Prior knowledge:
Elements: H1 17-22, H2 26-40, E1 48-49, E2 52-53
Antiparallel strand pairs: 1-2
Amino acid sequence: MAESPRCTVCGRTLRDPASRARGTGPVCERKTRALRLLATRRPALPPYVDGRPVDDVPASPLF
């Protein structure tokens, strides 16, 4: 990736050489890293109700 004078996420001016090389500032890097981690996380087991996956359980009436 070529050096960028502005953050590719928010558009702010990048002053640190490492940030320029990365293309994002330190705050946007932390935010996007957290989002990437959340996107790759999967639940260990699907939630079950009465032995059936939650997607298979019919919705109950609200009233």
